[in-house]
Amino acid sequence: MASKSKAAESLGRLYDAIREVPDFPTEGIVYRDITPVLQDAMLFRQAALAIAEPARSLGVNRVVGIEAGGFLLGGAVALELEAGLVPARKKGKLPQETHQIEYGPEYSAEAIEIHQDALGPGEAVLIVDDVLATGATAEATAAAVSASGAKVAGLGVLLELLELDGRSKLEGVPVWSVLTYPRSD
User: Fold this and answer.
1) Quick check: is 3 in a domain?
2) Which domain holds residue 87?
């Protein structure tokens, strides 16, 4: 019973560290800022370990970190899993030939890219991001991974906004989150 209480306390510390910023980046949005987690070495490690743990049995060769929070968490997760790190960037940020997948609303579409030579056929890939919201970016990243011939082994995120149901866009992909909003502790 003590370990269950300690785990709940630990999750509570992660929840408490995430800062809510109203009306950012636009009015009506409550931005969940993870930088306080990153600034605390113990919380950062806890977050990375919690994302990595479910992937240990998946034979992950590469971690794809989604710009920008996924870079930070993905690097720590990749080290923990002894896997390589591949950045998934917004359009035009990578210098070599890329797999590019467009996503988003009809009139303000964005694109995500990964280098064409970053992943090999059959490699098992864990996608990491800080927040799973609508799922559009994660879905596009999964499509870019698949375009490389690699297999998406899972998606791990620090926090998931349940009301936006982003995981529904990742059918057939194991998805796990360390924290959820609304809170489930």
Assistant:
1) no
2) 44-181
